[in-house]
Write a structure and sequence with these properties.
The complex is a heterodimer of chains A (202) and B (552).
Chain A (H helix, E strand, L loop, with lengths): L1 H6 L14 H26 L10 H4 L2 H27 L2 H31 L9 H32 L8 H28 L2
Helix pairs in contact in A: 2-6, 2-7, 4-5, 4-7, 5-6, 6-7
Chain B lengths: L2 H14 L3 H9 L4 H29 L10 H35 L8 H19 L28 H29 L12 H33 L12 H18 L2 H15 L6 H14 L15 H29 L8 H24 L1 H7 L3 H31 L5 H27 L16 H31 L37 H6 L10
Helix pairs in contact in B: 3-4, 3-5, 3-16, 4-5, 4-6, 4-14, 5-6, 6-7, 7-8, 7-9, 7-10, 9-11, 9-12, 9-14, 10-11, 11-12, 12-14, 12-15, 14-15, 15-16
The chains are: A mainly alpha (202), B mainly alpha (552).
Bound molecules: copper (II) ion.
Copper (II) ion binds next to helix 8 of chain B.
Amino acid sequence: MSAQAVALPTPPPIEPERTLPPALWGTIAFLVSEGAFFATLIVSYITFLNRDITGPTPAEVLSLSLVAVTTTCLLSSSFTIHAAEKALKRGALGGFTFWWAVTIALGIAFLAGTAYEWTGLIRDDGLTINTNLFGTTFYTLVGFHAFHVTVGVIVMLTILGLALRHKVTAQQENAIAPVALYWHFVDGVWIVVFLVVYIIGR
Amino acid sequence: MAVAERQLDMASQAAARPAWTAVLHDWVTSADHKKIGIMYILMGTVFLVIAGAQALVMRWQLVYARHDFVSPDVFNQLFTMHGTTMVFFVGMPMIIGMANYVVPLQIGARDMAFPRLNALGFWLTLFGGLLVYFSYATGGAPALGWFAYSPLTTKTFARSAATDFWALGLIVSGFGTIAAGVNFVATIVTMRAPGMTFRKIPFYPWTILWTSVQILIAIPPLTAALIMVMFDRQLGAHFFDPQNNGSAVLWQHLFWFFGHPEVYILILPIFGIVSEVIPVFSRKVLFGYEFMAAATMAIAFISLGVWAHHMFVIGMSRTLDMYFAVASLLVSIPTGIKFFNWLATMYGGRISMDSPMLFCMGFLAMFLIGGLTGIMLALAPFDFQLSDSYFVVGHFHWVLIGGTLFGLFAGFHYWYPKATGRMLSERMAKWQFWLLLIGFFLTFGPMHISGMLGMPRRIFTYEADRGWELWNQISTIGAFIQAPSYVIFVWNLVWSLRHGRPAGDDPWDAYTLEWATTSPPPAYNFDQLPVVHSRRPLWDAKHPDDPDWQYE
Ligand SMILES: [Cu+2]
């Protein structure tokens, strides 16, 4: 019997596969779908560029100086959230809380800028979603982006609350990473929106 | 067993059985991929019966020229709801449900990566479906056709809230579908059993991975476009409103950018099912695994760039017509590769014609024909003649029933023993198969002819002198031959649950991991996580003297 047992082939050893954790893969997959969503809105914006019969037009009402400030806020928040992540990895919880709070502040500043811009557009320029194609596509695209920023700010505020109660530890890196990835994505989308709406389309 | 003894047995069973409220609570709150999978499939079955009944009413309306069984408006509502239901609430739930049940088992995992997200996805899909049917409460369903071209969706032509319910329902169920896609990607990428590399993964999970990629890319544009419809209707936006320079053509582009990948979302998993069944019932390995895997990827990518072959007649430029015709024809190459590989898998095999294999045979024959009429329609000049005719109706039912449904039935007959521990009745399966095949031929075959004779789709009646009546009557007869086959199928599912032959763990002497556990599997699937060395881990376990990994 033992001769037969020896004759059975033994399989090669199994090397462990190294990959990202499920939460990150899930986030990446989700962000792919978000990318497809924003791509659709951006394509629609470009389709209707300069097709209006009645004003106001982007060149008449969009202020580049205001949006330059909000863009700076949002783009720098990508760096601050990265700093927060690095602090957490080092185990520096104070640093994490600080940079995390700065990121939230920058996000809120961006939203405040958008609110200010919209107030002016609606009250002074009379541009609403049903004024013309520019209004239709502008509020939809910029609005959905701002909605995503808002969701990000709410999630980050929740985590900030946990951090202030000392419930965030270096082991939770994997729970923080999807939020940071989402935030980078929202920033990336804004770069495209900024270029399309405020540079090329204006 | 003696009568008294059996009565005693039943009485003790009844005593042990928990109250139905407890059972219901258990299912409704479940995050187990197997229970969620079964709920998806039950949902699909219920909607299949509803949408099938709608089809029968339409066929009866068309049985005579100038027949007035239903009014034109009701007819318009019927084809809208039939198409919407079949695609979103029958096809998708059944595809996702079957994958939900089988994929974690096949890759040797204990559940999906995100069980609660999985439950959320199911309930969003179900409530999306209910929301669409809520439109009947507004006095009638929307009358748009399933692709809902503008300006039919504008307030001017669709005054009631039915269209809003329709759009909202599809948005909600779309979120459910995206949740499922996210979950499948995370599950298949990160939760394969030790040793199951991407080169050793069973073919079905591989197709589900690429189906999920298509879901992630194709569904969000539909969601965005439906939101635009809602904005147009509720906020006075102008996306698809030509009177303010909006674009009805943009809707068509966005819809079909979703719509074409959608048909591959409905067929790629079927390719996976067929690639599991044919090897087992031919007693061979899948021929050309690597080519099959590459062809799946190729189809997933090419199909994202062919959508406007649905729009040849709107007057695009000649360049675009040529591009979309050529790109569409390109899909037939990887599909052809798959087809020949299935034939090569069967070639020289010891083929047994059990019901799963029978449905695979039906699939191969029917999908080939549907593919050929697809090639005809991809040729722009041919499409100019037959676009929006019954030829198109014949074509896509041929691929959706002959392809998707036959493949799904193969999967049902293959995996039912695993899910319930009982075999389906082979006798009923044979009746189901032949009634379906014959009825299907009679229903959709003549549509190609009535289409070439000039009958447009979606008309509620026609004049007697057009020469369409005979072909419509054959179609209607075929529909009523098909109908009992679905009844037999549902009855088989119910009957076999009690009376089917006990299946055992591995009734088909199969190759993949789902057959390594009990039927039905325990909630945690596997006592011990399996270790995999080849594409046929169960073959290796059964044949330690001659395992597959020696040859791969
Ligand atoms: Cu297509």
